[in-house]
Amino acid sequence: MSSPGIRPEHTSHEQVADALSAYSKEELIDMMSHLIKAYVIDGITPVKPDVGKIHVPRHLRDLSFGVLIETLKFHLDLPELEKFSVVSGMVSVRLGERDYALDGSASPPAANRLEPAAAPR
Q1: Alpha carbon distance 114, 99 (integer Å)
Q2: Cα–Cα distance for residue pair 4/10, rounded to 1 Å
Q3: Quick check: 91 and 84 in contact, CB under 8 A?
């Protein structure tokens, strides 16, 4: 348990230092040699390096963004996905009454764009 006013990481450091103080200099050198070899020289990763990562299936990782959106729309019934459209591989999203291409332009793909009505003569 940490004392008031002492940061938890400082307390953990003290606990580790207290535990290591029981070892001789030679034992500490031996431990450090093994740790440096394993984690620095050999590059062994921690036991659970993927903790917190989302595992994406390989068949999805290899898809283009347009095909990924189409695949998600086909397999998932999510109303948010209906805001996305894909025309000739170009993905756009509907915001309000307008489509925005996700390449940064404000104009939607030509097949999805509404043409203004001709003025009467």
Answers
A1: 10
A2: 12
A3: yes
